[in-house]
Amino acid sequence: MIVADTRRRWTRAQKQAVVAECSIGKAPVSAVARKHNIAPNLLFRWRRDFGIGQSAAREAFVPVALPALAASSTSQDRPIAATTSS
Fold first, then answer.
1. Tens-digit pLDDT profile for residues 14-57
2. Which of 41, 58, 46 is nearest to 21 (CA)?
């Protein structure tokens, strides 16, 4: 029984060429993936592996520091105890 290997092998240069097509003219990833007959998620993975498109995602999140809550003895700040009715 002979089983054909259907998995394609891509060299690093080939991957870089396909990824470069996404950045040239801002072509959509889905269009480039369709052109090369690959899944868009594979192209997104290659972009991530080459470090392309990550700087914008890192800049989108800003660290936030919240002030510590002061301990208060007022009844409004205490949690309400659950009551059961019989």
1. 999 999 998 877 788 999 999 999 999 999 999 999 888 655 55
2. 46
Judge contact between 19 and 47, C-beta under 8 A. Answer: yes
Torsion angle, alpha carbons of 29, 34, 37, 39, to 10: 50
Q: Does pTM top 0.85 for this prediction?
A: no
The DSSP-derived string for 7-71 is: -----HHHHHHHHHHHHGGG--HHHHHHHHT--HHHHHHHHHHTT-SHHHHHHH-----PPPPPP
